[in-house]
Amino acid sequence: MSWKNQTITKFIFLGFSNHPELQGLFFLIFLVIYLVTLLGNLLILTAIRINPALHTPMYYFLSNLSFLDICYTSTTVPIMLLNFFREKKTITYEGCLSQLFFLVTCAGTEGVLLATMAYDRFVAICRPLRYPVLMNRRVCAYLAAGSWLCGLMNSLTHTGLMASLTLCGPNQINHFLCDIPLLLKLSCSDTSVNEFILYVASAIIGLSPCLFTAVSYVIIISAILKIQSAQGRGKAFSTCASHLTVVVIFFGTAIFNYDQPSSGYSLDVDILVSVLFCIVTPMLNPIIYSLRNKEVKGAIRKLAGECWSPRF
Predict the structure, then answer these.
(1) Which residue of 89, 162, 200, 229 lies most exposed, with the fewest beta carbons within 10 A?
(2) Is the pLDDT assigned to residue 162 strictly greater than 50?
(3) What angle do CA 14, 166, 5 make, to 5 degrees?
(4) What is the number of H-type helices and E-type strands within the chain?
């Protein structure tokens, strides 16, 4: 069937189609990952909210990150789980654009938010005396809102440009989600403007936060190494170790996800990298903060104790 001059109204996902005999196993794996992601991030949100000791800028941004990760994974996983039971793994054109909008919003917001959290750690360690002034409640609210606004404006731009294209086929997407590069391949319109904006946005929303975070941590680590006592160095590093781990995982998987070489393309490898970036990373974030952060670990234990203790 020729798709030339035919407008697409529905897409078929080909992700995981190479292994039809493993559909049941895949469903169980991703269901467990999704439930762990929801539970972990909800625990962190609740623990931060009910514990006054965690009402600080660092944990305010962490609560934003946890909420963002819930939104991020919920953008792709539920429909993917549903498609495991379908013979044809389909999504409507409108549903695809909606998924694209929320996916790009969450990814862009998370990159900027992680850079904001790096700035918070920079001020806390390198400018401790001015920390209460530089990171007061209003500044934190503006920084968090600015992170969400950056992701939202970036997504509105890409989604609007994508909606203006004519997609004429084939209607098959070699993936389990709708993303900008995948849909551009299906367009029979001129995509030069979309590609240019994509490169510009990648530099502003993707590369700039990554570089800012890297430079911040170079300065932070240099400042920590200058601390005289080993106890002081350990305490200072412990306040940013969890965030640094999350940063490495997020930007590392993002680079592999969007900067893969065109030669030697493998659908399985592409799917695996996207799973790590879009699904596994939101699950790892609360685990990392729970294991490496004493305050969060203590708050979660306290919350769990209150939930399981008998009430008479």
Answers:
(1) 229
(2) yes
(3) 85
(4) 12, 3
Q: Could you give the residue ranges of the DSSP H alpha helices within 164-191?
A: 180-184
Summarised one tens digit per residue, pLDDT across range 4-26 is 445 677 888 887 777 777 888 98
Q: What is the span of the domain harbouring residue 178?
A: 10-307
pLDDT at 129 over 80: yes
Q: Is residue 5 part of a domain?
A: no
Kindly state whether residue 270 falls inside one of the protein's structural domains: yes
Domain at 113, CATH number: 1.20.1070.10
Residues 6 or more apart in contact with residue 208 via CB below 8 angstroms: 115
d(C-alpha 113, C-alpha 247), whole Å: 10
pTM of the predicted structure, to 2 decimals: 0.88
Q: Confirm whether 2 is domain-assigned.
A: no
* Cα dihedral: 116, 118, 120, 124 (round 10): -170
pLDDT tens for 249-308 read 888 888 877 665 544 455 567 788 888 888 888 998 888 887 666 777 677 777 666 555
Inside any domain, residue 153: yes
